[in-house]
Amino acid sequence: MPEAVEDRVNVRVGVAGATGYAGAGVTALLSRHPAVDLVQVSSRSHAGRTHSQCYPGSDCDLVLQEELDGAACDVVISALPVGESGRRAQRWLSSGALVIDIAADFRLRDPASFRRWYGEEHPDQELLAEAVLALPELDPEPLSSARLMALPGCFSTAVILACGPACRSGLVEQDIVVDAKTGISGAGRTAGPGYLFSELDGSVLAYSASGHRHQPEMEQALNSLSPNPHQVTFVPHLVPMTRGIVATCYLRLRSQAAITALRHEYSSCYAGTPFIRLHDGPKPSKLAIGTNLCYLSIQEQGNRVVICAVIDNLGRGAATQAVQVLNQRLGLGATTGLNRDPLWP
Predict the structure, then answer these.
(1) Distance of CA 146 to the CA centre of its chain
(2) 221 φ, ψ to 5°?
(3) What's the rounded Cα separation, in Å, for the pair 50 and 61?
(4) What is the mean pLDDT of each successive set of 10 residues along the chain, which is 345 residues long?
(5) Closest by alpha carbon to 18, among 73, 74, 103, 78?
(6) Cα(167)–Cα(76) distance, rounded to whole angstroms?
């Protein structure tokens, strides 16, 4: 790593995959971040053009490169497709840069699990063992000395934040059921018949009911927090909106456990955290759009607990969370560069 990043006036950051939804979101945030110099952006499909020429609304005039030069960066934030970060991360790290991966390459610890869910061998299994899962409020693995940080997926982020304190408390049974709704932007900037307005409008689609690749991430993180192993049943649904996730999580209280004790766990766990907002009832997904906020509500039906989490899949589920992790790793204020308030309506 170059001489202490923390000693620089500004941190030099490069964004790989800067023209996808997540990468473009990071680019926009870092262009205005007071402690960052955005020095490089990459995109193979748009190399040679400026970012502002390729992405609507961008005011970043850096020329897109085919590949990032890790030696020119203190931090690389990668939003490349699955497998691509894994093939480049060692080179970036060897050049002295820290790496924050928004994609899925370093989330799962078990190479066999990666192969099962992504259909290919992991490109760098040695680094897979080193990577730290980055979720600042729960800190399942410490970030203070990490070189390689992996962001949970968008669904995983919502569910881990929703269920993490409950699992850590030991107050709930092992089985967790999650029903989640998401907007179409989770599919990325990819055209296809299933994403046409005429086919999505007025319709809701359950998908991956036999298993979704974010489910093993949820179990891995929740079990790292918990004294008891947990099993997650997870079914996502596609709804006709652009952005947002509503994850409704169903848990059962252990015998003699009280909902008041569980609510106390959440209040204690998230006290003083600027991005978690606890409420008496669920909030609409629109309230989180463009922010790093996660709205949580905890209610009960008999001996069951219903916890709703609301986030922006492209914000807290990707771009803004990457900046939050950057801030925490470098010892910056948590909200630095992330001060956008909710918009309503």
Answers:
(1) 17
(2) -70, -45
(3) 5
(4) 57 98 97 97 95 96 97 98 96 98 96 96 94 90 90 98 97 97 90 82 95 97 94 97 97 94 97 96 96 98 95 98 96 93 87
(5) 78
(6) 33
Could you list the active site residues? 154
Neighbours of 279 (CB within 10 A): 12
| Cα 289 from Cα 302, distance rounded (Å) | 32
Max CA-CA distance within the chain?
Answer: 64
Alpha-carbon span 158 to 179, nearest angstrom: 11
Which tokens go with 155?
């669904």
Residue 79 amino acid letter: A
Cβ pair 121, 111 in contact under 8 A: yes
Q: How far, in Å, CA of 197 to CA of 177, rounded?
A: 30
pLDDT tens digit string along 107-153?
Answer: 999 999 999 999 999 999 999 989 999 999 998 677 989 999 999 99
For residue 67 the two structure tokens come to: 């590949």
Placement of tokens 């599919």 in the chain: 187
Say what the pLDDT of residue 1 is. Answer: 44
139, two tokens: 């800190």
d(CA 290, CA 313): 9
The total of other beta-carbon atoms located within 10 Å of residue 175's CB is 12
